[in-house]
Amino acid sequence: MDMKKLKLFFQGRKGLLPRIESACSGHQGIIWFHVASYGEFEEARPVIEATRARFPEGKILMTVFSPTIYFPMRNYPVVDWVFYLPLDTPRSVKRFLDAVRPAKAIFTITDYWPTLLNALRHRKIDTYIMSVRVEPQSHHLKWWDFNYRQIFRHCYKTVMVHNEESRDLLVKLGVPDVRVMGDPRLDRVNAVAAEEWSNPVVDAWAGGKKVFVAGSTLDAEDSMMAKLAAAHPEGKFLIIPHEIDPSKVDALLAKGQHGAVKYSFYKDRPADDTLKNAQILVMDTVGMLSRLYRYGFAALVGGGFTDNAPHSVVEPASYGMPVAFGPIYDREPHGVQLIKLGGAFSLNGQEDLESFYCRCVNDKDFLKESSRIARDYCQRYKGATKAIMEVIFGD
Question: In the predicted model, what is the mean pLDDT of the chain?
Answer without folding.
Answer: 92
